[in-house]
Amino acid sequence: MEQQNSVIRARITKTHVLIEKAQDDYTKAEQTCYEDAHMMNKSVLELVKTVQAISDQLQPSKDRSQLHYFSHLQLGDYYDVEEKFSSEIDGFFRKQFMQLEKFSFSSDKDNIKSRFDLLGIPRPEISLIRGPSENMTDTINKEIRRICNIYPNSERSLITAKINHEYTTASKRALEVKLTALRERKINWIYQAKLKEDAKKLRSSSSIVNLFKNDLLPLIQQNRLRQENKILDCYYGLKLARKEHYLDQLNQVLEQVLLQKARYEFVSTCCQVENENQLNLHHLLTSVYMALSTMKSQSKSRQALLDNYTMANVEAKNALSYKNKFLKNLKTILTSATISDDIDNAADLLYIDNARMKGVAESLHATANKVIDDLQKLEQQREMKLQKMNTVIQKGIHQLYHESQHQGIPNTVLVTPMDVDETLSKLNDNLAVLYKKLEGIALEFKTRKVRCKADPFLEQERELFVYFHTNPTKLEQCVKTVESRVEAKKIAQ
C-alpha cells in the first residue's frame, strides 16, 4: 500500500510539473495571441482611416478650391472654348490664305483689275495653293544667276574707274602746278609745300589702289550675296514682301495651334495619369479586400474545425492540404499526444487524410476521458485518505488530552506511556555521562595550566595552550607545521 501511494505521489508530482509547463506555454501563447490581435486591430483601424481619407478625397466638392482631381472638374466649358477657338483659327486661316479678296485702287469693285493683274503676276492665293509655274521659276532663276554674275564685275569696274579717275585728276593737277612753276620760274616755298602735299596725296592714292587690288576685290566677291538683295525691286521686291507677310501670318496661326495642342496634351496627360493612379489604387484596395475575405473565411473554417474537435461530421474521403500551416500545427498537436506508427509516418505526406485526423481526434478524446476518470479516482482516494488521517489525528488528540480534561487542567498533555519514560531515562543517563566527561576535561585543563605556569621549559606548550583558547585556527596551522616537519625527518632518515 505504501509503495502504491509513493508511486501515485510521484505521478502527481510529475503531473503538476507538466501542468505548470503547459500553463506557462498557454500563458505565453495567449499573450502572443493578444499582441497579434492588438496589432491586427491597429492595422485594420489604420486601413479603415486610410480608405476613409481616400474616399473623402475622391468625393467631389462644390468648392472649386477644394478639388484635388481632374475628374472632379467640369471640363465642358474648356472644350467649348477650345472648339470655338478652333473654329476662329480655321476661319482666320481660310480668310488669309484661301479666300483673299482682290486689291483694288478705288472703292468701285466692278470689273477692276487688282494690282497683281496689272503687274502681270499671279494672285497670291493661287500661288499659295498651286505654287509657281515651272517656266516662271526657271526664268526667275536664270535672271537671278545672270544678275549675280554681272553685279560683282560691274561694281568692280565702277570702283576701278573711280580710282583711275581720281588718280588721273590728281596727276593732272600736279603736272599743271609744275608747268606753271616752270613757266614762271618761281619755285618758292609755297610751291614746295604744295608739292609735298601732292606727294602725300599721291602716296595715299597708291595705297588705296593697292588696298583695292589686294583686299577690296575679295571682300566684294564674298559679299556678293548681300549685294544681290539691293537690286531686287519691282516685281521681286513685291513678291518677297508678300511672301514675308504670308509667312508671318502663317507663323502666328501655327503658334496658336501649337499652344492649343499643348493645352490639349496637358489636360490629356493629367487625366491619363490620374486614371492610371486611380486604377492602381482600385487594384490595391481590391487586393486588400480579397485578402481580408480570404483571412475571414480561413478564420471561420478554423473556428468550425476547433469547435468540432471530435471531427464527428467530417467525411473520411476528403483530404486536407498539408501546406495549410494551421492544419499542420493541429496535426502536430494531435499526433504528439498519440503513439501510432501509421500516423507518425503520415507526417511526410503532402495531404492529410481526414480519416486519420478523425482517428487521432477520437483517440485523443478517449485518452482525455480516461485521464479525467483517473483524476477523479485519485481525488476520491485522496479524500478517503484525508478523512482517515483526520480520524487518526482526532483519536490521538483525544488520548493525549482526555486525562487532563478529566483532572480539570485544560490544554495540558500528560505523557505517561512506557516508551516515553524509557526514552527520557536514557536521555538523562546520557546527560550524566556527558557531565562527567566535561568535568574530567576541565580538571585536566586546570592541571595543564598549572604545569605550564610552573615549568619554564614548556614555552611552546604555553603558546599552543594560549592558541587553544584564543586562536584555534593558528593552533591548527602550528599542528600541521609540526606534522610536516616530522614527516620530513622520517623521509630524511
TrEMBL record:
The gene is LOC115230183. InterPro entries: HAUS3. GO terms for cellular component: HAUS complex; microtubule organizing center; mitotic spindle. This is Uncharacterized protein LOC115230183 isoform X2. PANTHER family: GOLGIN- RELATED (PTHR19378), HAUS AUGMIN-LIKE COMPLEX SUBUNIT 3 (PTHR19378:SF0). It comes from Octopus sinensis (East Asian common octopus). Residues 361-395 form a coiled coil. GO terms for biological process: microtubule organizing center organization; spindle assembly. Keywords: Coiled coil. It comes from the Eukaryota. The lineage of its organism: Eukaryota, Metazoa, Spiralia, Lophotrochozoa, Mollusca.
